[in-house]
Amino acid sequence: MLLSYFTIKHVKIDKKRFNIGAFILHRLWRIMPVYYFIILFGCLVPLMGSGPMFHETMVDSIYPCFQYWWRNILFINNYYHMRDMCMLHTWYVSVDMQLYLVSILVLLAFLRSEKLGVAISVFIILISIVYSGAITYAYDLMPTLTVAYTDPDDRQLFFFYTYANTLSRAGPYFIGILFGYMMIKKPDIQISKKLQVICWCVSAGACGCVIFITSSWFKVYYPSTLQLVIYASLIK
C-alpha cells in the first residue's frame, strides 16, 4: 500500500520523475546489508558450537547455505526444494523482492493510465486466487499447513506450489497496491462511525473464520474438495 502511495504521489503530485534504477537500488540497499550478513553468519554457525544435538539441528536450515547461498543472494531460493534451501524462513524475502520488481510494471501502468493500472492489478489478484484454488485441486493439497502433512513429499508440494509461491502470494500484495492508489485518488474520503463499526466487525469475523474454521477439520469431519479449494483461494 505504502509502495504505490508514495510512488504515485512522488510522480503525480510532486511532479517528479519515476527513476526505475533508483527504485530498485533503494530496496536492495535496505535489504542486502543485513540479509547478506545473516547468510554469512549462518554459514559460520556450524563452526561456533558442538555437542550431540548441535549438528542435527543445523542440518535442515544452515548446512544448505554452504552450497546454495547464491540462491538467496539472487532472491530465487523459494523455487527450490525445502531441503536445499538456506534458512527456510527466508522464502519471504525472495517472494517480497520478486513482487516488488513486478510492481514496477504495474506502477508504470498507473502512471500512464489509472484505469490500466487498476485493470492490471485486479487481473493479477484474480489470477492469484484462481491459481491457489486450481493448484489445491490439482495436487489434492490442504489449503494451509496442518498436522495432516506427515509425509515430507506432501509438505514439499504444499510449500513449493502454495506456501512460498510468488503467484499465490501476489493477491494481497496487489490489493495493497490498489489501496495505495485509492488513498491518492480520494485522500479526504469520510467513513461514518456506523460504517467503521460494521467494517471492523466484518474484518474481525473474517479473521476469526480463517483461524477457527479449520478447528473442526480432522476432529469432526474431513472438508470436501470444494471447501478446500474455496479456503485456499481466499485465505490470503
Order of helices and strands: HHHHHHHHHH
Question: Radius of gyration, Cα only, in angstroms?
Answer: 21 Å
Query: Helical residue percent?
Result: 55-70%
Give the number of DSSP strands: 0
Report on this structure:
This protein has helices at residues 2-13, 20-44, 54-59, 64-73, 91-112, 114-138, 152-163, 166-185, 193-212, 225-234. It contains ten helices and no strands. The chain has 236 residues and is mostly helical. The radius of gyration is 21 Å and the shape is globular. It starts with a helix and ends with a helix.
Give a short synopsis of this structure.
Helices cover 69% and strands 0% of the residues.
Topology of helices and strands:
Blueprint (H helix, E strand, L loop, with lengths): L1 H12 L6 H25 L9 H6 L4 H10 L17 H22 L1 H25 L13 H12 L2 H20 L7 H20 L12 H10 L2
What are the defining features of this structure?
236 residues; mainly alpha; 0% strand; transmembrane helix; Acyltransferase 3 domain-containing protein; Acyl_transf_3_dom
